[in-house]
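pasting for ref. prot 1 ->
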Amino acid sequence: MMMKLLIIIAIALLIGGGLMWLVEFEPGFVLLQYGSWSLETSLVVFAVAFVLLVLTAYWALKSLVLIKQTPGRLSRWQSAKRLTRANKTLTRGLITLEEGRWSEAERLLMRYAGHSDTPLLHYLAAARAAQKQDAAERRDNYLRLAHETTEGADIAVGVVQAELQLESDQKEQALATLQHLREMSPKHPYVLQQLQKLYSEMNEWQGVQDVLPDLKKRHVLPSSDVKSLSTDATVGQLESAIARHDWNKVSELWDGAPTKIRHSEAMLHAYVSALIQQDRGKEAGPLIEAYMNNEWSDRLAYQYGLIKLDNLNGQIERAERWEKKHPNNPWLLLTLGRLMKVNNQAEKAESILRESLAHGERGETYQALAEVLAMTPGNEAAVLEAYQKGLALMLLQGDASI
């Protein structure tokens, strides 16, 4: 700046010196005439007056422009100041939010939200603060403002809305939000994952089945998890059909399930339960035996005692072979005791059931023991005692079945 001023002064001195030399050499004159009016002066005076006039006009014009620009500059300065304050309060609000001071955080986040260049961050954070205060109406209002003030943020706002709805246990609303987001962005991995979790929590197994192909295709979950979820979903649909006594649906699901799923312990247990409820236990026997040839399942061993096959002695022999490989298993011993009772081997059944109780007391086992004791006359006191113990345990344990 100083250098520029020095250059201007130097140029002015050179021009002034040149003019003085011209005056001495040839002063000249200028004549201006307009109608009856005329002005005569020397060339130097005219030149100086003209330069002064131009400079005066220039500074006047510049001052006028500056005056006109002042409101705009002032507005921009105020906007910049508000923006700086908004950024500072956003930072303070987020820190306060993480510290757990929800009310103060909400107040800070909303103070300059309308002046911020990132209002989305203000409103989303304020929605979380309102959520922590159980203020669902304010929360939803902030989410609406976030949607209205930021173009292209529909997915981000929707994801936060679904998360907050889930946090408030508003599962139906969250499901509607996530389904809408999936319509908007069918390939969004996080939306797919959240949908799968919510469907699973709500036992909406058909929904899980619908979303699994996309989860696998988008590599949202490992292949092993997808297979496990597929099994869970099929079993869940089967159990739901069993609860409704929709036996046609049960058969449809069983027949349509992939072989690997049908051979899973969870699927087989559910299907065997359906067969037993339909008095089709004879069909369940071969399925249980085929599974138990390669794998072990306490649940299937228990169910094996709830069915009666045509070859009862063969059924007992098979259970005894299992018992040699899995000694002291209370569920298998309960099954053996029940089969012995059906085969009218009361003494042996009593011994096995008492052994089962020694390895795990259950109300159901006491009930089976009472039934066996009742087969022999004169055991009324023992029968009553067994029933009482069984009832007490059932009340304490709830559902005693495995």
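and prot 2 ->
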Amino acid sequence: MDKKMEKEMNAQINRELFSAYLYLSMVVYLEAENLNGFAHWMRIQAMEEMTHAMKFFNHMSERGGKIVLEALEKPAVKISSIKDVFEQALQHEKYITKSINNLYAMAKKENDNAILIFLEWFVTEQVEEEKNATEIIGKLKYTGERGEGILMLDKELSLRPMPVLTPAGTPAPTTAA
């Protein structure tokens, strides 16, 4: 693995871990507001980000890359509303999308097909991540962040299934029934 690519892959591990840390800070706000369904949804989001970090970690390990874990920055979260939580999450996901796209362009330039194939999953995942946050923001606009609508959305978000992880920290394969 090219040293420049190795450095950027390490930076991406850090970004994914920071994402989990950021989303956990949002859980704190949501739980303080007694919105346990919203908090559940965001807690799963944090777990997904840890899984993403592990995917990068494992890929680098399999390729013989040198993994360097850096300190995580404290999330500077200032939340003014429930909608603000998801607007900040969307803004962060757009940042992550940009970093994945930059990694993809770098791998393409370096002709590192293994990383290109590996990153394709993340390109698709980022479309889903942005879509999920955008949909929740859209629903929050309809509720006006008022009682009944918020409670209904809180209940809906509480139904997000908890992922089952393997010992490697990646989602367990699902079996067809």
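The CA atoms of residues 33 and 82 lie 9 Å apart.
The helical segments are 3-32, 36-62, 82-110, 113-143, 147-157.
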